[in-house]
Design a protein that fits this description.
By secondary structure, the chain is an all-alpha fold. It is built from 9 helices and no strands. The mean pLDDT is about 90.
Length: about 200
Amino acid sequence: MMIVMYSEPKKSAADRKQQTHERIVEVASRAIRRGGFGGAGVADIMKEAGLTHGGFYAHFASREALLAEAGGRACDESLALASQVAAAAPCGQSLSAIVNAYMSPQHIAAIDRGCPVSALGSELPRQAQEVRRRVTAHIERMVDLIARQLPDRGDGRAREKAMSMVCALIGTTMVARAVDDPKFSAALCDATTKQLSSDAG
């Protein structure tokens, strides 16, 4: 009787380096949303990723390069989630589903995992051009996603309406997180949800 031994192939050094790189970016994407760009120190990010500070430059040319990639990752995750919410919604309810998810208590509470623009909005004008370029692309994609859910999406005014909706979502989230009264925070979100639902019709 022949016994065949099987073992998974060992990961190459390049594979391991890529996995480590991804882990650093993932940790950094949460750190910048949680503590802001200024609060995302390289040493703390590397420690949270389970790595030593000395290994940082094997993956990134600079702190700014990490922040740009981490910001891009946060943007991609946020848009992917909004797209999933839209795709899972019943026919004709995708826009309401996106608005409700964005204005939900869960999103308001999850600053380190939610939309990076609402988490970092006031800091973004002072960031490096690469960070702002990625954020700009993200906002444009958010506008396009919202515009595709509007009843008048074939109309030229749909994109303009989508722009105002995206601004309302981001702005309300920032204010709802800023106030120290949970009931007032929830009321702000409810008011925007109702207004956007009315505007979408």
